[in-house]
Amino acid sequence: MEVAERTRVDLPPHVPDEFDVFVNGVRQRRDVDYEVLGRSLVFPRAIVQEGRLGFWRWLSIWLGIAGTYRGHETVDVVYESGGRRGVVTGLVPQPIEDL
Questions:
Q1: Is the pLDDT of residue 23 over 70?
Q2: What is the pLDDT of residue 37?
Q3: Does the CA dihedral 28-30-32-37 come out positive or negative?
């Protein structure tokens, strides 16, 4: 049995209930591309982030031997509070393991 991988992204406490979500700069649609559960966004797919690069990987990039070609998606939230627009970037996606 294959289980679909889902991803959770927790919202910071200062983000109000009304906001827009972007993945790699592309606007996402609520209840289509993600759903809101409490103070978390749940995506029905994996949101991929490269993670930390090790010493040898950094050295090979610096020397021009290799590039970084791994997937890396960013999740950003845009909101308005007190008449000012705010943006939260670099939200950390966490995989959800279904039982």
A1: yes
A2: 95
A3: positive
